[in-house]
Each structure stands twice: as C-alpha cells, then as structure tokens.
Amino acid sequence: MASEIVVPIFAGIGNALLVTPLVRQLKKYLPECRITILAGSPAIGEVFSRLDEVEDVLVARSGTVGLLKAGIKLRLGRCDICLIPSPSRRWQYLLMAACIGARRTIMHSYSERQSLSKRMLRFETIPAQRGLHEVQQN
Q1: Residue 31 pLDDT more than 70?
Q2: N or C: which end of the chain has fewer CB within 10 A?
Q3: CB within 8 A of 62, min separation 6: which ones?
Q4: Sign, CA torsion 89/67/60/80
C-alpha cells in the first residue's frame, strides 16, 4: 500500500524552490508514495504542479480560516505522513499539522522550547543543524 505524504509549504517561493530536491528524493526512494503539496500561495503551488513527482497540489486560501479548511480537507484523505520541510519555524506549520492529523508528522526543531511543544503534539522532530543549507537540512 502506497504512503500518502503531505508536504506543506508556506515560507515563500524561495524556500519552496529549496524543497524541490526533497520532493524528488522522496519519490526516488519511495516510488509508490503519493505526494500532495499544500501550498501557501498560488505561486508556490505553480512550482510543484510542474513536478512529475507530485500527484496533487492544494493551494490554501490566505488567512487562518483558509489554512484550517485546507487542513480539514486533507484530514479527510487520511494522510500517513506530514513532512514539514525546513525552515519550519512558522506557527502555521504546527496548526496545519494538527489539523491534518497524519499518522506521523516529521519536522525540524530549533530550540528546546519548540521541541517540547512539538512533543506535546506527538510530532517527530529532527534537530536543525546551524550552518547547514536548507536543501541539506531537508
């Protein structure tokens, strides 16, 4: 059975471009997975709609209500993994991951305080490494 993987991207078009190698590597090593991108803007969605490795792109409407609606829509799809790319410091990522309710949520931690809140939400965290380029973090 193929894994359903959601990758939310809200940090802007530049960071979205830095996530494309991650998406390509996911498909390379998990060819049976189904990748959905949750984009924070139409421009971000456009980047990923052009990748063969991506099965679906969902563009969230702006604002908190738009994020919540997109998260609930994805929750109904029973996502296996929510993989939040670096940088994942924005509060929108925590809100979105909680709404999606994936079996596993994996993201970076940047401080002990942040790590504690993510553990309370039962998210798996990978320590971010200072000085490491975002492409390599992902």
Answers
A1: yes
A2: N
A3: 41
A4: positive
Which phi and psi angles does 114 have, rounded to 5°?
-65, -40
pLDDT digit string, tens, across residues 60-103: 877 667 777 777 677 666 788 888 887 666 667 777 777 777 78
3-class state of residue 86 by DSSP: coil
| Cα separation, 51 vs 107, whole angstroms | 22
The pLDDT of 6-10, averaged and rounded, is 87
The pTM of the full predicted model, rounded to 2 decimals, is: 0.77
Pairing between β-strand 124-127 and β-strand 104-109 as defined by DSSP bridges = parallel
Ordered alpha helix ranges (H), the chain: 13-29, 42-49, 63-76, 91-100, 112-120, 134-137
Distances in Å between the alpha carbon of 130 and those of 23, 124, 125, 136?
22, 19, 15, 11
Q: How far is CA 33 from CA 20, 27, 29, 77, 114, in A?
A: 16, 7, 9, 14, 29
